[in-house]
């Protein structure tokens, strides 16, 4: 099965040796998104809520570039440097997803690239 690289200017450019997402068949594997503003490649803010919103906007942009949307995500991994922010993540996530929600993991980590407080990756299954 062939694979294709997904790219959009509406999400931050890769800052390493990876693609924003890779599609294989009807499955799309999204790389982790951090709260960089695509136009400036700078962190949106030090405020956690602003960072979380920016990450969901970036994830949405990559999903759309792949031909889907956040409702097509079947698995989401959320990495947080402070798990006490999880209630805020749930509040913001409810604005980007509707039921049935994707499977999800929330993982506390020591640090993330560029000092981000949140990173999200996922797997999307496109309608056939």
UniProtKB/TrEMBL annotation:
The GO terms describing molecular function are:
deaminase activity
One Pfam annotation reads Ribonuc_L-PSP
Q: Which GO terms describe its cellular component?
A: cytosol
Transmembrane ranges? none
Q: Which domain of life is it from?
A: Bacteria
Signal peptide bounds: none
UniProt-listed NCBIfam families: Rid family detoxifying hydrolase (TIGR00004)
- List, alphabetically, the PANTHER family matched: 2-IMINOBUTANOATE/2-IMINOPROPANOATE DEAMINASE RIDA (PTHR11803), 2-IMINOBUTANOATE_2-IMINOPROPANOATE DEAMINASE (PTHR11803:SF39)
> What is the protein name stated in its UniProt record?
TdcF protein
Species whose genome carries this gene:
Aliiglaciecola lipolytica E3
The lineage is: Bacteria, Pseudomonadati, Pseudomonadota, Gammaproteobacteria, Alteromonadales
């Amino acid at each position: 099965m062939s694979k294709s690289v997904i790219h959009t200017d509406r999400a931050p450019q890769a800052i390493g040796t990876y693609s924003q997402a890779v599609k294989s068949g009807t499955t799309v594997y999204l790389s982790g998104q951090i709260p960089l503003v695509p136009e400036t490649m700078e962190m949106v803010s030090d405020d956690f809520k602003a960072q979380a919103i920016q990450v969901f906007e970036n994830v949405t942009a990559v999903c759309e570039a792949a031909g889907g949307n956040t409702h097509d995500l079947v698995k989401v991994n959320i990495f947080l440097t402070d798990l006490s922010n999880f209630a805020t993540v749930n509040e913001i996530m409810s604005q980007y997803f509707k039921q049935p929600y994707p499977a999800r993991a929330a993982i506390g980590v020591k640090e993330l690239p560029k000092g981000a407080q949140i990173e999200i990756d996922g797997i999307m299954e496109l309608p056939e």
